[in-house]
Amino acid sequence: MKLHARLALVVIAGLIPMIALQAVEHVETAREREAQALLDVQRQAQLVAGQLEQVSARYRDLLLSVATTPIVRSRNAPACAAYLASLQKQFRDGFTIGASDLDGNVYCMGLPFGQNSPINNADRPYFREALRTRDFVVGELAYAKVPGTAVLHFGYPILDADGKALGVVFASINLPWLARQLVDRPLPEDARLYVTDRRGSLLVELPDEGSIGRALPKELRRLVYATQPGNASVKIADGNTLIAGYVPEASEPRGFAVVLTRPREAVLTPVWRRLAWEAAFAIAAVGIGLVLAFAVARRKVYHPLARLNETAARWRKGDLAARTGLETDADNELRELGKALDGMAEHLARRQEELAAAHEEMRRSRDEAIRANHSKTQFLAAASHDLRQPLHAMNLNIALLSSRLGDSPEVALVERLKRSVANLGELLNALLDVSQLDAGLIRPHLAAVELDGLVRTVVEEFSATAAQKGVKLEADKTDATVHTDPVLLGRMLRNLVSNAIKYTPSSGEVRLSFARTGGRVEIIVRDTGEGIPPERQQEVFEEFRQLGNPQRNPALGLGLGLSIVKRMSTLLDHPVRLHSIPGQGTTVTVSVPLALAAASHATEGRAPLLAGRALLVEDDEVVAQSTADVLRTWGLTVDVVHTAEDASQLFASSSWVWDAVLADHRLPGRPGLDVLLDVQQQHPGALLALLTGDPGDPRVSQARRTGLIVLEKPVRLERLAAVLSPLAAASPREDSPPRVAASRA
């Protein structure tokens, strides 16, 4: 876009707010004018209604006086006619008064009427209404029977001393006369006044006086039947809009309705005319402004800006040595700007050099951080195996000690020791899991798992902790079989249950329940604890965050449980939702897909009865001895070697064929996976299991892909028993013929 066009836009943009403001003000003025006009027509309609109320009250007082006069009550026609004639003379034209009996027969009037042509008012609505209500009534549009002009009747019942109706005294007013009474009050030039009876028939229309008896326009007719006075904008058939004020028939004076209208266009035309004039002046101002702007800009702005634009283009290409040269132009208002921009270019050149040096330093720091993170990952991988190994041995030895003590009183001590070691293992697993999850070293191994058994195991593990704190821990039953990694899902549930118990006070409750939704089952962990404020509910999934432990008391944990749950939910694609109300507890829901078939599970709560021969390859003497003792108590014959080379020599020299081979993955020299792969090729019928304290090792993932069983240390005895369940007591014993002898022959 050219500079001239931009300057034009600048001038126009500067004037647009002013024009817009004026337009808004005029629109607001128009609204106010219309609102005021609505109030004015309503007020004027009410003034007309007040006039009609005065007329109605005047005739009410008159008829009341006449109806109570003895001459009228006596029905003495000559005397009554003389009395009414005297009253008639007191009023100007347009008024007639008379009296009729109960049958409607007129027996006297203020004006002479022919006795040979009797008048009967029984068919008049006002006559019937006066007798019915025993009160003053205003009639409807009618035509006088004598002399036939358009009139409006008023009526009042004639009652005797006992209140019995004797007839009706009436007065009729000439409607043109009524219109002349209303003309006395001036109306706006463009206003139109309508007065109707209760049926909507026109009694008066001003300024047109010849519309008596015509129906009110249908667009205005609804106003006659409103419940109270008001105003409205009404669109009529010709497309124009009227501003109307109205007093409906339901208001005082009863029997009349008043509608006063003005054309909306007539009210608003002065406002729009003024707006048009001001818009014309604004456009003229824009034109003058543009001419002046172009004249000044050509000499003072256009050429200097062209030089600035050229210099800026060179800066964009990296030539920070370019200068505007405007600081030497004394007759230019942009001289200071050019000087400032030249100084900025010099500053940017220096900053560019500094940023290049800083970028190089950041690159070196990033490379060092990447190397440090890689070293940390390697260290944790090694620490994972070395730390899990003694815990695995402790678990095995505690199991042996428990089986040997039998019913000894020290069994309780062993159980406490077992729980302590389990807690230590959970803590170690948490720390290692966070690192391995972040490093992507843990891979899920999905299978069909019976959910009820997994949940029961978790509940049993924490039942003692819950009982000690006085918390009720329960779980509903379920027959669901889910598709998951039982180890990872178990860790998620343990962390959730542990957290729920920790933050539930004594006498509280923690419950695990289930709900099926489509092809998934939701595991619901609900507690009655203190709850979590809404603004901190996402915070609890961060590392080392414990809302109730600001002093970082180690006895209350490290604050890693829910962080691990969040990571594992992402890894397994088991979405986790948290809902909590402070003071009412917390609910955490884990959504797990259903499996197509049930998972097999190990016998729980008692030692398995197995038969057969097993080979254990384990380089740690303590772990090897403990594991072998456990397997022997289960009924197996166990051979132990400590390296892959020892296992190969044993295969070559012995005639035994082993029903199961368990090998530690990290062995001196060749890994345990090589041992199992050799056995798998030579004896495909053997049960093979890889023991590892480093589940993130790529070769462990390879073992899973080849169909081998992988047991992560520390191995839970229930899991080990489940893996060895094919060697139940019905399997071949030590003295049975070797199962793979035929393959050796």
Automatic annotation (TrEMBL):
Residues 613-728 form the Response regulatory domain. Signal peptide: none annotated. It comes from Caldimonas aquatica. This is histidine kinase. CDD domains: HAMP, HATPase, HisKA, PDC1_DGC_like, REC. The keyword Transmembrane applies. Coiled coil: none annotated. Residues 299-353 form the HAMP domain.
